[in-house]
């Protein structure tokens, strides 16, 4: 058996990113532990994931100029992350009330209801629910 365990999102700061994913999107904080960079400097190992999911997101604080350039542009301006929910309308309303920026209005496609939103650093996500 194999599965995708983690994907990384590079962020400016840990705590605002944790708040966004946990308080706004309702993810679980799976791990927030002290760690070290490859050259021995302190950092944190922060993992969040949707409740019940196996795949998590490693929230990695940008370390240096090169990494800072990708914050909010992980996938060159494309939608790179897809959050499927059971109740699209309730989730959408909750996110709007929490101040999440949607860059498209909800619409219905063959595969379900969809709207594009920005995460805490500006990466594009699809919010997807049943049609």
Following the backbone from N to C, one meets helices and strands in this order, namely EHEEEHEHEEE
Q: What is the CATH fold-level name of the largest domain?
A: 2,3-Dihydroxybiphenyl 1,2-Dioxygenase, domain 1
Largest sheet: 4 strands, mixed
Net shape: globular
- Structural class determined from secondary elements: alpha/beta
The named CATH superfamily of the largest domain: 2,3-Dihydroxybiphenyl 1,2-Dioxygenase, domain 1
What is the count of helical runs?
A: 3
Radius of gyration: 15 Å
The CATH class name of the largest domain reads: Alpha Beta
Distance between the termini: 31 Å
Brief description of this entry?
The protein has 131 residues and is an alpha/beta fold. The protein has helices spanning 14-24, 65-68, 88-97, and strands at 6-11, 28-36, 42-49, 56-61, 79-84, 107-109, 112-118, 124-129.
């Amino acid at each position: 058996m194999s599965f995708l365990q983690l994907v990384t999102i590079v962020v400016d700061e840990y705590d605002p990113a944790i708040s966004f994913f946990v308080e706004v999107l309702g993810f679980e904080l799976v791990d927030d532990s002290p760690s070290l960079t490859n050259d021995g400097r302190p950092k944190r190992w922060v993992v969040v994931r949707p409740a019940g999911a196996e795949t998590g997101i490693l929230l990695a604080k940008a370390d240096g100029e090169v990494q800072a350039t990708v914050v909010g542009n992980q996938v060159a301006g494309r939608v790179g992350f897809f959050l499927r929910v059971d109740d699209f309308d309730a989730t959408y309303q909750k996110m709007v009330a929490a101040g999440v920026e949607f860059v498209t209005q909800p619409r219905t496609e063959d595969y379900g209801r969809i709207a594009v939103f920005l995460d805490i650093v500006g990466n594009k996500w699809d919010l997807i629910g049943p049609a």
